Amino acid sequence: MKEHADHVTRAWVLHPDIKSDRARRVAATALSEAVALAAALPNLEVVGSNVVPLPKAHAGKLFGKGKIAELKEIFAEAEVELVLVDGPVTPVQQRNLEKEWNVKLLDRTGLILEIFSDRAATREGVLQVEMAALSYQRTRLVRAWTHLERQRGGLGFVGGPGETQIEADRRAIDDQLVRIRRQIDKVAKTRTLHRAARAKVPYPIVALVGYTNAGKSTLFNRLTGADVMAKDMLFATLDPTMRTVKLDGGLDVIMSDTVGFISDLPTELVAAFRATLEEVLAADLIVHVRDIAHENTEEQARDVRTILKSLGASDDVPVLELWNKVDLLEGEAHDAAVNRANRDPNIHAVSALTGEGLPGFLATVTGLLEVAKTVQDLHIPFDQGKRRAWLHQKGLIETETQGEDGFDVTVRWTAQDARQFEKL
Ligand SMILES: Nc1nc2c(ncn2[C@@H]2O[C@H](COP(=O)(O)OP(=O)(O)OP(=O)(O)O)[C@@H](O)[C@H]2O)c(=O)[nH]1
Ligand SMILES: [Mg+2]
Fold first, then answer.
1. Residues annotated in the binding site for Mg(2+), as ranges?
2. Best residue among 33, 37, 41, 217 to mutate for probing ligand 1, ranked by most atoms within 8 Å of CB
3. Which residues line ligand 1 (CB under 6 A)?
4. N or C terminus of the chain with fewer C-beta within 10 Å?
5. Is residue 422 exposed (0-12), middle (13-18) or buried (19+ Cβ within 10 Å)?
6. Average pLDDT estimate for 218-225
7. What does DSSP assign to residue 106?
8. Alpha helices, DSSP H only, in 64-122?
9. What is the pLDDT of the chain when averaged over all its residues?
């Protein structure tokens, strides 16, 4: 938000509960998540919030006449300056509602983009958010234009000033997108170089992923002794952070903490962060951190799995579920979670805060990453230099001798390394 540091914007959060929307979420919990999202923006005070039940969205103003008038009074009374609508709002609806209510309005994607742009700390993060914001603006220009065109339709104009302007805006955005893309590529290249240097250290990579506020950074800090911001705030972490940790058995691993996921993650954001996220997911082990004490924990887990899949997380990479925050569960609920986890080797019930359950989890991590490593002799013909380079780059080669028609190498690797090697 481009507000003065001392000015606190008075905001109201609306969750439209649209009956005709098949993918609709439980209204009360969706509203409280939207309020938490709003609270993640600095200099903003949520002065009120409510669910608005709707049979279906109205094209021009989203809500019905009576509702709009009713809310107008409430907003005036509460001196609301900004209305956050937890869902998609078309540019036309946005303009109309802003005029009706005399407020500024942001929809869910706009709000999440604002938070991300506030959090972005690294050059790459800033560029990625900028790209997402521009792509978002661009689709809104297109939609506004379609609307204008339809209005003009009957008048028989071809073109017209509105269209020219929007076309020009769109071209300007496209040019800017190309420039940003180029800058991101440049930054990404430097990062890849760093990574190549790191790859010489043959440490397996463990990626922490999960819903926002699940406790990834708290766990990361506890395990690595790092000091990543961990806060009861949505999207506290934006840029991925990596640290080396020596596990109890002596195994060194690289842990990575990442941006949290959320339901209905704007597609523009997923696209902009794809490169970073894909790199994170190219891990040896993915740990799905869940807030098991959250009332929506199942829904959140489902959304995380969907997003992982859409990012192309490989089936070859094992996934462990970490049921975090068990310390918040009491009595039977606590025991039930722990018992359930005990029955499934892929689930661990832990508390990143108290440390409960962590030794067992770490033992499983060690087991998965180390026991799986095997030694194998390979013969690599000279014309397969790429495969040999890959083995070197991953640091998998123990010994190597040159023969008449190729190299004889001994590798020490995991089953996953072997599968990747086969695919090269
Ligand atoms: N009671 C309890 N609270 C926890 C536990 N783990 C994390 N928290 C709290 O949950 C909140 C969110 O923790 P973070 O570590 O910032 O969560 P995150 O997954 O990194 O969140 P994002 O970076 O926003 O995606 C903080 O207030 C933590 O103190 C836990 O095991 N028990
Ligand atoms: Mg975090």
1. 217, 237
2. 217
3. 210, 212-218, 230-232, 234-237, 260, 324-325, 327-328, 351-353
4. C
5. exposed
6. 92
7. E
8. 65-77, 91-101, 108-119
9. 85
Using a cut of 0.90, tell me whether the model's pTM lies above it.
no
- Residues around the ion ligand 2 (C-beta < 5 A): 216-217, 236-237
Amino acid occupying residue 63: F
| 260 DSSP 8-state letter | P
Amino acid making up residue 287? V
CA atoms within 13 A of residue 162's CA, in its CB half-sphere: 15
> Could you tell me what percentage of the chain is helix, strand and coil, using 3-state DSSP and rounding each to the nearest 5?
50, 20, 30
How large a percentage of the chain has pLDDT more than 90?
A: 50
> What is the distance between the alpha carbons of residues 391 and 199, in angstroms, rounded to a whole number?
10
Q: Indicate the top mutation candidate among 231, 294, 338 to test ligand 1's pocket, ranked by most ligand atoms within 8 A of CB.
A: 231
Say how far apart CA 116 and CA 139 lie, in whole Å.
19
Which residue matches tokens 């300007």?
Answer: 172
Whole-angstrom Cα Rg for the chain: 25
Average pLDDT over residues 198-206: 66
State both tokens at 263: 């339901």
